Amino acid sequence: MDDQNYESSAGPNIVRPYALTSGRTRPAVELALEALIQALPHSADRQWELDDVNAAIVALCKESPSVAEIAARVGMPLGVARVLVADLVESGHLQILATLKEDSTDSERRELIERVLSGLREI
Questions:
Q1: Distance (Å, rounded) from C-alpha 49 to C-alpha 34?
Q2: Structural domain boundaries, residue 76
Q3: How many CB atoms are located within 10 Å of the residue 44 CB?
Q4: How many domains does the chain divide into?
């Protein structure tokens, strides 16, 4: 989704997505699209601004969504979501869960792929 579509679909007062990341396009930590992200318990204690996109991301991460799902559910471009999630990981509000391991079952692999595809379709 380009900036113009993002801006018009969300309303006239929306901040351009790259402004949320101060123009950064690369996340500070390596984040795969399928990486599952989880909110750390103490992140709920922080007093977030009501319209803060970081608060929305942290709230979503109580369900351990993938990075792709976060982007889709918050309604922002994937690159912006990756940078914001990485910032929240670095600041100690979120953690990256292991995606798949050598001994992951076919069912776990299928579930992860389905979740990522669902998130990508929503973008």
A1: 28
A2: 3-122
A3: 12
A4: 1
